[in-house]
Design brief:
The protein has a single domain (24-190), classed as hpI Integrase, Chain A, CATH 1.10.443.10. The protein is 49% helix and 7% strand. The chain has helices spanning 24-34, 38-49, 54-58, 62-65, 91-102, 122-135, 145-157, 163-170, 175-181, 185-194; strands at residues 73-77, 84-88, 114-115, 118-119. Strands 1-2 form a two-stranded antiparallel ribbon. The chain starts with 23 loop residues before the first helix and ends with a helix.
Length: 197
């Protein structure tokens, strides 16, 4: 073993599939658990209420969201694609941001998600999500991408958003890719077989 080598880290080019949080009860439990920690609560709420990647959430600066009202938009440049996108914050995000900003002194140029050691990294988000899911005994594989997948899963399953819209939002090339990404393809196929004539 070489110094600094992590055998738990995936091999270059391989992918680790993480799960969405499918149960609204589990979402409510995590929110309740984090309710006394405005920073982690805001991360969770923004993560499950937008389709932002963890790296993009961590790139949000206070001045971008400080005076936004529910339904207002702000521009964000995606780190992965380099494209600029307009992000709309819903009421839940607005309240979480408001609560976070009330909990401390922030400058407009500060990153929204900053701890005692400075701005958070994607690895921090992964650890946080894993610890929240473990704390409520949630079975499966969870990480930073779980937040984005949870948003997509519930847009489809809970709110009935159509696949072409979700494909466009996630920038997927096929509906099959979107169904697989959201971990709902087997569920939707099984439901077809349950239909009675």
């Amino acid at each position: 073993m070489k110094k600094g080598q992590n055998f738990n880290h995936p091999k270059k080019g391989s992918r680790i599939k993480v799960d969405p949080i499918k149960s609204k009860k589990h979402i409510r439990t995590i929110k309740k658990m984090l309710s006394e920690n405005p920073l982690e609560y805001a991360l969770f709420v923004i993560g499950i209420n937008t389709n932002l990647r963890a790296s993009d959430i961590l790139g949000i600066r206070v001045g971008q969201v400080k005076n936004l009202k529910p339904g207002a938009e702000f521009a964000l440049k995606e780190r992965k694609t380099g494209k600029e996108r307009l992000i709309t914050l819903n009421r839940a995000c607005y309240r979480a941001v408001e609560q976070l900003l009330e909990s401390g002194a922030y400058a407009d140029t500060d990153f929204l998600f900053t701890g005692q050691r400075g701005p958070w990294a994607v690895t921090t988000v992964n650890k946080k999500v894993k610890s929240w899911c473990k704390a409520i005994n949630l079975k499966g594989n969870y990480g930073g991408h779980t937040l984005r997948k949870t948003w997509g899963y519930h847009q489809r399953v809970s709110f009935g958003v159509d696949l072409p819209t979700l494909m466009e939002i996630f920038n997927h090339s096929t509906q099959k890719q979107t169904l697989s990404y959201l971990c709902i393809q087997p569920e939707e196929i099984r439901k077809v077989y349950e239909n009675e004539l």
